[in-house]
Amino acid sequence: MKFSFNQEQQHIAHIADAFLSSVSNSESIREAMVTETGIDGVLWQQITQKMGWHLTHIPEQFNGLGLGYVELCILLERMGANLVCAPFYSTVVLGINSLLIAGTKTQKKQWLPLIAEGQKRLALAYSSQGRVWGVESVTAQYQQQDNSFVINADYRYVIDGHTADAFVVAARDVSSGNIALFLLSAETVGVTRYWTPSMDQTRKLATVKLENVCVAKDSIMLDTCGDSLIPLDNILALACIALAAEQMGVAEKSLSLTLDYMAERKQFGRVIGSFQAMKHKAADMLSKVEAARSAVYYAACVADEFMAGNDMGAELLEAASIAKAYCCEAAYFNTGSALQMHGGFGFTWECDVQLYFKRAKAAQVSLGDSAWHKDRIANAILGTVGLDVVAG
Question: Which of 118, 107, 122, 191 is CA-nearest to residue 151?
């Protein structure tokens, strides 16, 4: 396992920096975030048709690039730094990972090429409660009727759920309580979804309701029902690593914006960057970024081992919780510090720092807050809760 980028990874990072700094700027972000979809259509088309980033970890047999999670996190770090308003996280992270881990051969063959062509966007809907995370938050129910299934659900906080073409949904058997995953079109009869306004305007959430939705037997994932608890846990762990990578980008960009401001803003006849207190705070922010980077890319390496079916992949859930807990705290600390160091200007609508603060806070509570993940790590260390995983 290497802890430095190879030449190809460095090239990916350089291209991503150059591209996103020109197309995902303050003006374009603000134009997209005030719309109900929250998507910069031109940017998304460029990502899929020109850059091909959505192909990153799609296997080559499905028209993808067949790269790893490290390469994906490199892109997500830059996307977090530029607050990209596109359905990349929902489709490429949540959707593709769901297919890779839990999809049947038929589902992979049908959907992955469509995603690769930029024709379809997916979303993951699993949680129906606000203060419970992980597989415990699945309260939707399904019941088998002959060769079909009937699902009733009220999913909350579904990322890009109001614009997705299809959903991967989690539900429990009404009799056994076992969890199953289903893949269904957003146009299925009985499915309703609508945008739910939230703190972070740059990432849209939705409520998705399923009322007596009847799906065919081939909609169920893993070929059989009732054994999707561990796969769902793994999907969410991979999502946590990806979100941690975004938050590292948020933390680093908030530091960059602050350093620029410190070099320009004058007080008492001196630039504020010359004051010792400001230097100390900036140093604290930098230390948060560097520690976050270590957590993210270690977790990304573990994710690659997991996807390859290697022994080290058994550390997936633990590495994911460490990365999620620390990186979200780092982003919240850095964006909060950036607000303070910008003074009164930092709280104004014209200042971009407040957008990063909102993203940091929203991400901090998504997929489990730091306390939830720390508790999970502690329970695993003490042996009270297992962190067993199975390869997809």
Answer: 191
- Closest listed residue to residue 170, CA positions, set 186, 146, 154: 154
Q: CB-based contacts of 275: which residues, under 8 Å, 6+ apart?
A: 267
CATH superfamily of 123-219: Butyryl-CoA Dehydrogenase, subunit A, domain 2 (2.40.110.10)
pLDDT digits (tens, 9 = 90+) for 192-217: 999 999 999 999 999 999 999 999 98
Identify the residue whose tokens are 């604290």: 284
List the structure tokens of 327.
């990186």
CA distance 357 to 340: 11
List, in order, residues 6 or more apart from 270 with CB less than 8 Å away.
none
> Residue 21 is encoded by which pair of tokens?
């700094």
CATH class of 7-120: mainly alpha
As annotated, the residues of the chain forming the CATH 1.20.140.10 domain(s) are 229-382
